[in-house]
Amino acid sequence: MDSFNDVMDAVKAYCKGRVSDASYRVFIQDLNLLNFEGTNIIILEVPNDVVMRFAAARYADLLKEAFASILGFEVELKFVLAAPAPDGGKAAEKPKLDENDLPSGRYEFTFENFIKGPSNQFAFAAAQAVAANPSGAYNPLFIYGPSGLGKTHLLNAIKIEIQKNHPDFNIVYVDCEKFTNETITAIKTATMEQFRQRYRKADVLLIDDIQFLAGKESTQEEFFHTFNTLHNDGRQIVIASDRPAKEIKSLEERLRTRFEWGLTADIQPPDFETRVAIVKRKAELLNLDLPNDVAEYIANHLKQNIRQLEGAVKKLNAYYLLEGIEPCIGVTTTAIKDTLNDSQPIPVTIEKILNEVARTYNVMPSDIRGKKRNANVSAARQMTMYIIREVTGMSMEAIGQEFQRDHSTVVYSIKTMEENIKRDQHLKEMCSDIMKNVRT
Ligand SMILES: Nc1ncnc2c1ncn2[C@@H]1O[C@H](COP(=O)(O)OP(=O)(O)OP(=O)(O)O)[C@@H](O)[C@H]1O
Question: Which stretches does the entry tag as region Domain IV, binds dsDNA (predicted)?
Answer without folding.
Answer: 321-440
